[in-house]
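User: Hi! I'm working on a homework problem where we have to compare a predicted structure to a textbook description. Could you give me the structure for the chain below?
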Amino acid sequence: MSVSVEDLLFTIRYRCDTESHLSIRDQAVCRDCRKPCLTFCPAEVYTFRDGEMHVAYENCIECGTCRVACSNQNIEWRYPKGGYGVAYKIG
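Assistant: Happy to help. Predicted C-alpha cells:
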C-alpha cells in the first residue's frame, strides 16, 4: 500500500507563531519571475494572486526547498522561533 504526500503531511504537528519565518524580499522580482516556487514547495506555501506573491507560512514544513530553489534568492527563510514550528511524528 502506498501512502500519498497528503497523508504524510497530515501526520505533521505544527505550533504556529503569530509572525512569519518566511518572507518575500522584493515583490517586483516575483512579478517578473517564472515562479518555480509555486511547484517546488510540497506544502503549497506560495501562491501568486493580484500581482503579489503570498506566503502561507502556517503551512511550512521547514524542508528548506524554497531557500535553495528560488533562482532569484528572493525568499527570506529562517527557522521559526523556539517552541514553534514543525514536529514530525516518526512511525
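For your comparison, note the following. The first strand starts at residue 13 and ends at 15. Strands lie at 13-15, 22-24, 46-49, 52-55, 75-77, 85-87. Good luck with the assignment!
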